[in-house]
């Protein structure tokens, strides 16, 4: 069968090192960014440790919060994702990258951008948090650095497209492998979505930061930002879905339940991830309620492929569990290979994501959003999504991918399992407290330890939140230790040992999947049309009435 | 499973899967209907497109040159609130119980938030734009409005209060 031959392709040493370099930057970013998590959590419950960091220039809560957001949400994810998708393309297509140099240029562009953005952040010249809303002022180097990170990821994406185009030429009439299709859809979505923030930076923030223009139009800036901001979360999530759909079934000992439904879900994500940004601006001035309402409806639309994913992933897992002898309506869950940390990370990530999904529907709910907007509920929510569904799944991927690219065995199964459960338990406590605090009215992005309006009623939840945060910190430290000891140990796999690259077969032959689920053009055209309809009129209105009269102001 | 070539043109969804898809769609439509009724029939509405101002000069011209409360009679009030790093002007507003207050809020510098605790008033405050929402105060007491968008180093201290007084002579 075709699949066998494909998985037999040996990834070259250079390509393994290239993917490994992505993981290295990602994990270094995660380990630095995570240092600030417990500091924030403790500050909220009255234990202010920032004074201790003052001598090394990190005594500012907001500088720390900027580092936490930029490194964890933007850098850890983007580097991990581009590295992971690279190996998915190579292994999925069973061939090397068409232009390896192009991808290397992309990677180094991202690294240069990261350094360029990191310097002003550390100097306190970009304390604008990871949303950098105008007219808060950051150094031009911060904006340019972020732009280079995005451009670098685009270049790596172009490298994927060239590789795919060549594979298509050599394999006419063959369905593309699911994981490759999914990886490419993720990249296409990302490249369309990031146009928003690219326009915001290049036409508004960078000129103002360089003194070329006198000011910004903050509401127009928000509209550009959220054009990118919501699909950004799908850029984080879809690679985790690549693993859940395309790898986890094999890792759990089964098969993908439905190849065609998996593809449909990814196409729907391409179509619906972008024209939903106004649901982040429900309580904004300057945007008519009609457009907010349209985006509310479309946001419910993007919940549909997530619900499809829930069915297909759970069905695939049940298939695996029953093959392993699992019985009963829910008893099969116990038959899953929980002892394998690669699997348990993804299972626990999925469980946390069910709560995250429910919260997400709440956020999307137009007027219900009035209760939660900019409260602690929101970081509570995205710690269940990007910091659980995504990050915990990436932990699981790391447990096989680091051994795969280094040729060294996982150090150790037991410690990796410890990471997963610690993260899971810490996150349950942390996110629950954050959600409750949000409902009680606690604002996000605020050092509540010094806020004069905090009522006694919040204190128990603030304490619970900081306990959760401390447990999470233990989890992430353990993960970094596992990753580092795995990668830098002396012992290697013996001859004939090693990790297999996981590709889940589908229960049905992918060749039976309808052809329209394997063609890019109609879906990309559909996406552009839908985005133009959902954004065009209001964007034209806002650009037409733009007033760049809000000068940048230091935070 | 029907393996005829005709069937292969479709998705080949499992019957359970098809039922799940229908249930998902019904659920999402039900949510949409709920928020629609709440928003457009029951008045739980989000801020809309109000008006634009020039953030550099807004504090110099009426009504913003004299921020504060205006009594329109019949228990109707309008409150103009200026937000700036790191305070609200005014920072105290006093109304009798039963008052309906429409808040107009804007900023002279960076983005702020305006969240009136224990009510449905929660607005992004953006320089160059006016944010507007209305609330009826049925219960006497103190309602704090707090800044819930990062606005700079003094952000955590930024808040004000609405004092809703019980009617004179009441208990």
Describe the structure.
The complex is a heterodimer of chains A (555) and B (171). In chain A, 69% of the residues lie in helices and 0% in strands. Chain A is an all-alpha fold and 555 residues long. Chain A has a single domain (10-544), classed as Cytochrome c oxidase-like, subunit I domain (Cytochrome C Oxidase, Chain A), CATH 1.20.210.10. In chain A, 59% of the residues are buried. Chain B folds into two domains: 5-41; 58-165, Sandwich (Immunoglobulin-like), CATH 2.60.40.420. Chain B is elongated. By secondary structure, chain B is α+β, with helices and mostly antiparallel strands. Classes of the chains: A mainly alpha (555), B alpha+beta (171). Chains A and B meet through helix 10, helix 12, helix 13 and helix 15 of A and helix 2 and strand 7 of B.
What key attributes describe this structure?
heterodimer, A: 555 residues, Cytochrome C Oxidase, Chain A, globular, disordered N terminus, B: 171 residues, Immunoglobulin-like, 2 domains, five-stranded mixed β-sheet, 2 helices, 10 strands, elongated
